């Protein structure tokens, strides 16, 4: 089962490189109207989810059968919640760094992108409860001799623009001498830069890194030990009434065992 998503994700990642918009996305138009963002009139409304589909197994573009579709753990959760609340779901694929601005501009009703609810982000958007936890790793070319963050001294480190990994790297720069950062828009760009030797290392979360490692035996990873876990939550425009409704369905998914099933489906043997 695991192998299957790795294969799918290889194709997905290749396609995401050319900046595809989604097959099922609504081209980014707002779903804030139609009472969608109001959330109290179930049925008939459309909810627009924005994501950055470069993040297998959370979200990636699958090309099986010639059509492109955004699939993944987050997408399964979003589909279930939308269905429970009586909405149609549209998905739009944009760079991670543009997700919060899209919410603020009313171009999406919610964001699911393995996004961590940081204090800084909470100033601009509201978050659901956390639905999954992850840790941070340093990825590098095999034989790169990196065992801890201190070994990044003198190295160029890739991170996704606007991510908590970029924040973490900015902190590293303060303590580890001579670290150069290379912020990039898409995770697959980071992996390409790493493979071609244009950057020496990258900070990527564990479950996502594991997928890329499985496809790229020339890469290896080491966990950043003192980093706490960095959970994922759903983001909404400030004061969205959808937050409590989504939290209610998330809680139901936890208690019914459905969340666990999805974790096993997408994370395989990494499921707790
Ligand atoms: N969890 C990290 C953050 O919130 C990274 C998420 C990146 N997600 C993505 N779809 N590329 O910053």
TrEMBL record:
<feature type="domain" description="Solute-binding protein family 3/N-terminal">
    <location>
        <begin position="46"/>
        <end position="270"/>
    </location>
</feature>
<dbReference type="Pfam" id="PF00497">
    <property type="entry name" value="SBP_bac_3"/>
</dbReference>
<comment type="similarity">
    <text>Belongs to the bacterial solute-binding protein 3 family.</text>
</comment>
<protein>
    <submittedName>
        <fullName>Transporter substrate-binding domain-containing protein</fullName>
    </submittedName>
</protein>
<feature type="signal peptide">
    <location>
        <begin position="1"/>
        <end position="23"/>
    </location>
</feature>
<feature type="domain" description="Ionotropic glutamate receptor C-terminal">
    <location>
        <begin position="46"/>
        <end position="269"/>
    </location>
</feature>
<dbReference type="InterPro" id="IPR001320">
    <property type="entry name" value="Iontro_rcpt_C"/>
</dbReference>
<dbReference type="InterPro" id="IPR018313">
    <property type="entry name" value="SBP_3_CS"/>
</dbReference>
<dbReference type="InterPro" id="IPR001638">
    <property type="entry name" value="Solute-binding_3/MltF_N"/>
</dbReference>
<keyword id="KW-0732">Signal</keyword>
């Amino acid at each position: 089962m695991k192998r299957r998503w790795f294969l799918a994700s290889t194709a997905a990642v290749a396609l995401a490189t050319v900046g595809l918009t989604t097959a099922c996305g609504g081209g980014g138009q707002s779903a804030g109207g139609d009472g969608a963002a109001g959330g109290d009139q179930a049925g008939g409304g459309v909810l627009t989810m924005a994501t950055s589909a470069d993040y297998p197994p959370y979200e990636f573009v699958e090309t099986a059968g010639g059509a492109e579709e955004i699939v993944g753990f987050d997408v399964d959760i979003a589909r279930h919640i939308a269905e429970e609340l009586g909405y149609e779901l549209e998905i739009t694929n944009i760079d991670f760094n543009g997700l919060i601005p899209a919410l603020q501009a009313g171009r999406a009703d919610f964001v699911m992108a393995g996004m961590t609810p940081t204090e800084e982000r909470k100033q601009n958007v509201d978050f659901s409860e956390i639905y999954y936890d992850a840790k941070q790793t340093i990825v590098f070319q095999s034989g790169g001799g990196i065992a801890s963050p201190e070994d990044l001294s003198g190295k160029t480190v890739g991170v996704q623009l606007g991510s908590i990994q970029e924040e973490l790297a900015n902190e590293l720069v303060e303590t580890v001498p001579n670290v150069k950062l290379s912020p990039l828009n898409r995770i697959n760009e980071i992996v390409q830069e790493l493979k071609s030797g244009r950057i020496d290392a990258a900070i990527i979360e564990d479950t996502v890194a594991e997928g890329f490692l499985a496809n790229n035996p020339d890469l290896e990873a080491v966990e950043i030990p003192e980093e706490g876990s960095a959970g994922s939550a759903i983001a909404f425009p400030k004061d969205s009434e959808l937050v409590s409704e989504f939290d209610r369905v998330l809680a139901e998914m936890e208690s019914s065992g459905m969340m666990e099933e999805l974790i096993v489906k997408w994370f395989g043997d990494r499921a707790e």
